[in-house]
Amino acid sequence: LEGVVTKSRPVMILTEFMENCALDSFLRLNDGQFTVIQLVGMLRGIAAGMKYLSEMNYVHRDLAARNILVNSNLVCKVSDFGLSRFLEDDPSDPTYTSSLGGKIPIRWTAPEAIAYRKFTSASDVWSYGIVMWEVMSYGERPYWDMSNQDVINAVEQDYRLPPPMDCPTALHQLMLDCWVRDRNLRPKFSQIVNTLDKLIRNAASLK
């Protein structure tokens, strides 16, 4: 955030210019052009941003590669907070329940959020796993040409996206951890950042 305009309408925020625009289209334009370490660096930046959001008690609800911006140094920043909400400060159950009727991005949304409109940092973690898959597949559409209802049914029957081509086993395992049905068993964003840091330090684990 570089600044804000509050003394005139419309109210605006001024942010850093992100030369490479949205991550999904950027990856598709540069298919196969990055090293695994570069891709993991992008994922680490996204996870760090989500760690901060979760620590501030915000749930994003629309985390997807299309809502990540990329600058000239391949630094990724989380954007598009149109669906984000503040979680009530109740440590026993930090949950946002949305009213029925609003559209939600099915392919990126955790099953409990689809079924019960229960959004938490853990549902953002599920979405982050989908973003990981998007990054490692260079912007492929999650679940390809399946309909939204087919995606819901498949996930309910424990189908999970397979590893993208040349995706290191350790990264696909982290995706699967993000997609655990029980939201309480999914890693926290702080744990995801730590895991990615370890993988970056030990490049041999990314084969």
TrEMBL record:
Keyword GTP-binding among record annotations: no
GO MF, one annotated term: ATP binding
GO terms classed as biological process: nervous system development
SMART domains on file: TyrKc
Superkingdom of the source species: Eukaryota
Entries under InterPro entries matching the protein: Ephrin_rcpt_TKs (IPR050449), Kinase-like_dom_sf (IPR011009), Prot_kinase_dom (IPR000719), Ser-Thr/Tyr_kinase_cat_dom (IPR001245), Tyr_kinase_AS (IPR008266), Tyr_kinase_cat_dom (IPR020635)
Keyword ATP-binding: yes
Subcellular location: Cell membrane
Membrane topology term: Single-pass type I membrane protein
Gene3D superfamilies, A to Z: Transferase(Phosphotransferase) domain 1
SUPFAM superfamilies with a match to the protein in the record: Protein kinase-like (PK-like)
UniProt keyword annotations, A-Z: ATP-binding, Cell membrane, Developmental protein, Kinase, Membrane, Neurogenesis, Nucleotide-binding, Phosphoprotein, Receptor, Transferase
One term under GO cellular component: plasma membrane
Record domain Protein kinase: where: 1-200
Subunit-structure text: Heterotetramer upon binding of the ligand. The heterotetramer is composed of an ephrin dimer and a receptor dimer. Oligomerization is probably required to induce biological responses.
Name of the protein in its database record: Ephrin type-B receptor 3
The encoding gene: EPHB3
